Amino acid sequence: MSFEQGVTVLSGRNATNRTSLLQGIMAALGSDQASLKADSKEGQALLEFGEETYQQTLHRRNGTIVTEGDPYLDDPEIADLFAFLLESNEARQAVARGDDLRDLIMRPVDTNAIKAEIQQLEQRKNQIDSELNELDNLENQLPDLEAKRTRLIDEIEELHDELESAEEELEAANTDVETRREEQSELDEKLNELRDTRSELERVRNRIETERESIEALENEHEDVEADLEELQAGGEANLGRLEAEIETLQTEKNELNEEISQLQRTIQFNEQLLEDPGEFLGGEADNNDGPVTDQLLSDADSETVTCWTCGSSVATDQIETTIDQLQSVYEDRLNERSEINDELEEKRATLNEIEENRSEYQRANRRLESIDEEIERRRDRVEDLTDDREAFTEEITELEAEIDNLETDDSEDILEQHREVNQLEFEIERKESKRDDVEDKIASIEERLDDREGLQDRREKTTEELADLRTRIDQIEDSAVEEFNEHMERLLEILEYSNLERIWIDQTTRDVREGRRKVTKSSFDLKIVRSTDDGAAYEDSINHLSESEREVTGLVFALAGYLVHDVHETVPFMLLDSLEAIDSERIATVVEYFESYAPYLTVALLEEDAQALEGEHETVTEI
């Protein structure tokens, strides 16, 4: 079969392979909701679209149908829900049964992935906030550091002035340099040595002070990390293995339920189609109906019985219908079980994530605590070594001062005092200049760090926007689904003109439910219906009181809302419609033309009398 873009109408009576063709299209697109004829062990669906070819093969193995190949879709779930709108379509059935529509419309959304991404972004934002707070603290230090630098510069200038004066006085007083050259030379040497030793002593003192400040800061951090450890208390470790085992068990149960649900859906679909098109599944084609066996089977198809496809005996159609009802009940039970398992899985995975995150934080804190202890021990050893150096330098200074005292004479007392003054001034200048350089290095380092602030603020703003988008994404999808349904439902009701049916809409509400030990707020979609009496009075009605036609239209509009909200046309440009007989011909034509605006390729299976309303306007296929 070949299809053009737009609407393609498959027109014919029952048992003319129209539904089989739709299932073939679904199979080639990737759906596993297709069936094999009872006498076939294998079948294949092939689709050429554009320049690409897609195919999927169905095999019958151990009483079930398995699929393989290279279909159009890797994951057909969203198309099965909102694009392949056959009679058994879950979206249509959910409306007909009055199920909670919110869970179905949100099923393609990976809420766990969104929550994990939110957690990562929150951690990133907290880290950026911490860095920005650190920059604020550093910026607050700048005024004090700049004032300190200015003060040191002024003090250095004053010391230079004093040194210049002292050197001039020394030069003026040193009138007998030649006669006391040897004494002066030795004295100068000792004074220089004394100055250098004092400089080394001051350097060691500064290092001791710096090391002690670092030790104090590390001890404070040690207390903070210990406090964090007390809060973390890695208490969930004992539950970790149990949770992982429970999650694995629940996942296995879910997989088994998925397989059972899929098998039930195919079985229901197969038996419904058997009732509708019995000749299709009896091993013969339309052009092979001239044999006596085929005549007998087709005769059964026109009566109140159908030939069983498993044993070949005649079975009353009402018995098959009862079986279908029972299977449908089991199918709904399994869907409810899967929903409960999904909720429990989500809760346990969230708990597992919390435990694992707690464990990671606990391990990081322990490693940091060990690192701090090692660093404190190293610095204490360094302080001890520096203390030994300080004592050695102190003793050396005492010895030098004694030697200088021995070299002093009454005649040279003034000159020696002036030498001491000059040496002391030079030492003070060096010390002040060293402090000034340290302050300038700190200022430069802070200013360099502050240059990163704008980039950090941009990152924080972007992260905040991403967080806001993620936190509202689920709400946005829910709001959009409600808006799409209500808008299209209002338009179609106005066009279709159902008598006394005033309005159908989804009312979005929230309710508190218990998940394990926690109470959480969940959104719910409630279908509201308002009718009017002959005298114009309005009253609220329920889905159970809608006519079959009204119910089918509502289900189709809900599926269309999901198709639009999840942009299904970007994933698969095909929409398939079947089993519209409950709607009258004129309204079917209106619905098809309405849906045409949103689906690039719309294929609809109709009875001949229903297709007449669309003939001439769209491509019509009468032979398959």
TrEMBL record:
<keyword id="KW-0175">Coiled coil</keyword>
<dbReference type="GO" id="GO:0003682">
    <property type="term" value="F:chromatin binding"/>
</dbReference>
<feature type="compositionally biased region" description="Basic and acidic residues">
    <location>
        <begin position="177"/>
        <end position="186"/>
    </location>
</feature>
<protein>
    <submittedName>
        <fullName>Kinetochore-Ndc80 complex, subunit Spc25</fullName>
    </submittedName>
</protein>
<feature type="region of interest" description="Disordered">
    <location>
        <begin position="164"/>
        <end position="186"/>
    </location>
</feature>
<dbReference type="InterPro" id="IPR027417">
    <property type="entry name" value="P-loop_NTPase"/>
</dbReference>
<dbReference type="GO" id="GO:0000793">
    <property type="term" value="C:condensed chromosome"/>
</dbReference>
<dbReference type="GO" id="GO:0000785">
    <property type="term" value="C:chromatin"/>
</dbReference>
<dbReference type="GO" id="GO:0000796">
    <property type="term" value="C:condensin complex"/>
</dbReference>
<feature type="coiled-coil region">
    <location>
        <begin position="324"/>
        <end position="487"/>
    </location>
</feature>
